[in-house]
Amino acid sequence: MDYFVRDIDPEWVENLNSVLDDNKLLTLPNGERLSIPPNVRIMFEVQYLKFATLAPVSRCGMVWFSEDVLTLDM
How far is Cα 12 from Cα 19, in angstroms, rounded to an integer? Predict the structure, then answer.
């Protein structure tokens, strides 16, 4: 599983839209396309989504935990 722990920034996350949809292709700046294997999962851990656009959000599942449920001991 690939795991990103950072806030969603449209500058970099928009490049992952084709990876997150059914195509599962990463298109590089030179035009080369890399196929993502079916066993690869991508997870984002973010504190908030205020800079996220609808395109990547609509391609992801969401799980929310309130601050009183999670502790540093976990």
Answer: 12
Tens of pLDDT along the chain (74 residues) come to: 555 666 777 778 888 888 888 889 988 889 899 999 989 888 888 877 888 888 888 888 888 888 788 777 76
CB of 7 closer than 8 Å to CB of 51: yes
Residue span of the structural domain in which 51 resides: 2-58
Count of domains for the chain? 1
* 65, part of any domain: no
Residue 27 structure tokens: 């298109």
pTM of the full structure: 0.64
Between CA 65 and CA 74 the distance in angstroms is 13
Rounded-to-integer distance, Cα 41 and Cα 16, Å: 13
Please check whether residue 66 lies inside any domain of the structure.
no
